[in-house]
Specification:
The chain is of the alpha+beta class. It is built from five helices and four strands; from the N terminus they run αβββαααβα. The protein has a four-stranded mixed beta sheet with strand order 3-2-1-4. A hairpin with a 4-residue loop joins β1 and β2.
């Protein structure tokens, strides 16, 4: 199976059956993410206890790439410390925006989303959940992809 078909299969699987989809009853942290470019909008709820992400859920209206990225992200960070989650946010962003090709094996299934780099206008779709996670963990109410200058440059270079 080619890398491209694995990427497509993972996106379709997480879009059809998103993990951790929904909301939490009384989250300790919450943020809303919005991508004005394509209209993706997600709400992210987190229950953090002693610096650990104990529960996490998302919901909203988004494209398949954003939903798959949200689903995979919530799986990846559940049970992690905020420091571990922040490291994953940075590494994921570098993988997509800067094209970092260093050893990605520690990212597990997240590394298949590197294929989004081949679709520069969709990079913001994949990064939105990660911006929203960062905002929620830092008690910000919202996040937008418009603040991502590197992704903006990437998109601008495709037009």
């Amino acid at each position: 199976m080619s890398q491209k078909s694995i990427y497509q299969e993972v996106i379709l699987d997480h879009n059809r059956k998103p993990r951790n989809y929904g909301s939490l009853h009384s989250p300790t942290h919450h943020a809303t993410g919005h991508n004005p470019l394509c209209g993706d909008r997600i709400d992210l709820d987190i229950n953090m206890i002693n610096g650990h992400i104990e529960e996490i859920a998302f919901q909203g209206e988004s494209c398949a790439i954003c939903k798959a990225s949200s689903s995979m992200m919530t799986n990846a960070v559940k049970g992690k410390t905020t420091q571990e989650a922040e490291s994953l946010i940075q590494e994921f962003r570098e993988m997509l925006v800067n094209g970092e090709e260093k050893d990605l094996d520690h990212l597990g299934r997240l590394k298949v989303l590197a294929g989004v780099r081949d679709l520069p206008t969709r990079v913001k779709c994949a990064i939105l959940p990660w911006h929203t996670l960062h905002a929620a963990m830092n008690s910000a109410d919202s996040a937008t992809t418009e603040a991502d200058n590197h992704a903006n440059e990437l998109v601008a270079n495709t037009h």
